[in-house]
UniProtKB/TrEMBL annotation:
Residues covered by region (Disordered): 1-29, 132-159, 401-499
Organism of this sequence: Suillus plorans
Basic and acidic residues bias locations: 426-435, 451-464
UniProt feature, compositional bias: Polar residues: 140-155
InterPro entries the record matches: DUF6697
Segments forming a coiled coil: 48-96
Keywords per UniProt: Coiled coil
Keyword set includes Translocase: no
Listed Basic residues bias regions: 402-413
Protein name: DUF6697 domain-containing protein
Domain of life, source organism: Eukaryota
Pfam families: DUF6697
Keyword Coiled coil: yes
Taxonomic lineage from the root: Eukaryota, Fungi, Dikarya, Basidiomycota, Agaricomycotina
Amino acid sequence: MHNEIIELTDSDSDFHASPVKQDSDKTSHLNPEVIVLKASLTSKTNLVEEQGKELTKLRKENKQLKNEQDLRTAEIAGLQDELKNTLRQLDDQTVKNLNFNMIKLKNLKSNAVLPNGTVVEATGHYDVDQDMSDNFAPTAPSQPSNPITSRSSPTVKPEPVRVDTTIKVVIKSENEPDQIEQVTFVKGEDGKFDVWNLEHLGLGPPIVVEERFCVGFRRSVISDALGGGHQTTSNNWKGRTKTDKFPYLAMTRSYNPHLPLVPGGHGVVFCGVKRFNDGSLIEGPIDLIASDKPNQWIYLGSYETSRWGEISPNQLDLLQPLVIQRWVSGALSTLWGRSWVERTNAELVEKGGEIRLVDFTEDGLREALNDGRLVINFTVMKCVGYRTEWFEQFLHYQTHPKAPKSQKRKKKASSGVKKPFAKRLKVSERRKEVSSESDGDDELQPTPPGSDKDEFSDMEDGMKTRLGSDSPGARKNLRMSATRSRRTLYSRVSASSQN
């Protein structure tokens, strides 16, 4: 078999190679188109992302504008309410018929400084002694102007309204006519109005007191260090010219729920603090001691007492029911309560007209509080200082108590030397005078005693030691017996002096 050699000619190789070249040309032609498409897709993707970001930004701006619009709407609503209140004030009869919650403040200063720095000067048109319930004069809030001689009410620029409801407050100055300012209620966390919030008065920050001073002492320790009685509210109250001792108040929180919570803080006491026993005005600071529980009296600081007033009947329901019950039950069971009612009835008789005397019963006291015949005074306590040196005195007398007066009298009696009757009479009268001065004054007469049921005098503590009894009932009977003995002694001395 012959081997044949087949040779490929150029024509054959060109025939078989031509299709491969055509495919390569197509691929090279498509590559630029793919690149263009990819570039176009990338640019469109970037454009979509930018548009998405712009849309998100526009949505945020729209939301912010909506919030601003809501705030402006709320401000407009508040201004509308304020305008309505202003228009209502133009009619005195309308104001009296409105169901507003009112509080009355009395200021010993002739000028009242508002929180925004505006000074309000009073112009006369009311008597100071006139019933404050008739002293709400209609005024339209406006820019304060210079005082003039016309008998018109002062005008005050009110603070911005923080909530929907505002109240009228009358500020009284000693020997000065009425002043009116607009005060805003502040809602508490529970949604209720906190009438005793003091922020609108601009009292400033509290005094910072170290925690080591927040210690309570027995009432006898306080009396040994500062003077004053063991159960009295107003202590060293003779007057600045009659004694060199510091005057101070001793308050229990059961009767005064809005006392300062901590030493150095601001608060409210339910009593008037205006004059000493000698009739002189209280111009300097008054120190305050408070008790949360028996045998725990804490010194709170020195307080300015220029703002004071009365709780109106419309505002009585803003007090806690337990506080009102405490005042009613305390008045029925103590001498200060009977004196409170007797003095109120005497004032009602002096006013004349239709007399509705206050009945000395639980229902009678509640009815008198609700209709305004019985009034609970209050004083705003602004802390202006703290006497740290007193704390060292408390610590000293806690470990070195003074001897009870009963023991001193026994030592003198055991000496066997009797004083002449005339001298004994003078001493008894002097003791009675001191006792009456320590019991309180006219301004603090309707104020509960600064003690609690578990706080006793040194004489009773000495008797309790001799009897060896810790029973509260036995100590109460012992205290009542000692009180009756003192009254009998004073009555005998008075009868002897008259004869």
